[in-house]
Amino acid sequence: xxxxxxxxxxxxxxxxxxxxxxxxxxxxxxxxxxxxxxxxxxxxxxxxxxxxxxxxxxxxxxxxxxxxxxxxxxxxxxxxxxxxxxxxxxxxxxxxxxxxxxxxxxxxxxxxxxxxxxxxxxxxxxxxxxxxxxxxxxxxxxxxxxxxxxxxxxxxxxxxxxxxxxxxxxxxxxxxxxxxxxxxxxxxxxxxxxxxxxxxxxxxxxxxxxxxxxxxxxxxxxxxxxxxxx
Amino acid sequence: xxxxxxxxxxxxxxxxxxxxxxxxxxxxxxxxxxxxxxxxxxxxxxxxxxxxxxxxxxxxxxxxxxxxxxxxxxxxxxxxxxxxxxxxxxxxxxxxxxxxxxxxxxxxxxxxxxxxxxxxxxxxxxxxxxxxxxxxxxxxxxxxxxxxxxxxxxxxxxxxxxxxxxxxxxxxxxxxxxxxxxxxxxxxxxxxxxxxxxxxxxxxxxxxxxxxxxxxxxxxxxxxxxxxxx
Lengths: 230, 230
Hints:
The structure is a homodimer of 230-residue chains.
Chain A: H1 3-40, H2 44-90, H3 92-105, H4 110-122, H5 124-135, H6 145-170, H7 174-200, H8 204-229
Helix pairs in contact in A: 1-2, 1-6, 1-7, 1-8, 2-3, 2-5, 2-6, 4-5, 6-7, 7-8
């Protein structure tokens, strides 16, 4: 794997991560809420109202949350970068000592670090790049990421949430709807977990089982709590 | 900021991140759902049942999701590390070329990279450490992180969610409860946003306003959708 491949991998894995963030909760929470309400209140209409309200609330909260997180990452990167740019001009001795400290951590002697420092001082931009990545552990974020991240997360939440809710919208018989909802959602969770595993590098079958169990546990907890207080 | 300070900052910021993940949604989604249902169905009991079912579902889904994400990070790190350990033994020439490629990106000549390569070959563990961080951009995750992350996210979700829901549990007058819920949640969102900003380095007042607006938008969307279909 070359350096460039890693960068590309990093970008496309951000989209996958956003879909996973949105769809994991979108499939699970509206499903569990609808199941819980059916256990407590035998009325498809209330379940549909609550489910759609939850999908609206959840997709907006998670989408805007993702937008702000990505914006915050960009701003954090910019402000840290500006600070490093200032520091290599105003406190070059301290910055040189930091480079040596990092390189020493990898077993380089002072003599071995000197040519690296000389190369950095000839190219300040490269020096700042290096400090950002190796001192602070920060990668430059894609500026378009925030909006794309928000839409991907919100869209995935809505897409995921409509699967468990659709049966309650089709039939007014809420126990029947619950059965179809469970069947549709278990299949969707299993497929989603499998695909998620394929993309994130986890063993797909195990990811599929884990995702389905999370949805089931959440629904069982919601069902039990709703039943207890109803 | 020294290298070690960065590591410590990294660990404590993970806990803050987990609280933020859990509480941001915990404050927002149950609040929006309860507000939406009050707009559609004038019955505190249904709002409380739906709200508690949502908190159970949301906290379990997000907590287990956080657990699996942290576990996945650990496993990804371990498997990549095992691969790098094998590669520096089986394909040392290719690995040396990768080190040179990375160092060239920072303006080092072949002569300047040679002592670094010699230092690495004398200490294979350091070489692998370096490849993990600088080729793959991976930091070693804390093994205890997964369980702590799950409990922190789930607990924060429950703590956040009980704030908007408490008024509906105290009074059966749902419009009155909605007013107290809005007041309590707006105050809680403003404080949460401010504290979040302080910890994550964003301007606290702006973070406070943004967080409150997200909660308000999510609630308004849930309210409108529930009202339209009721």
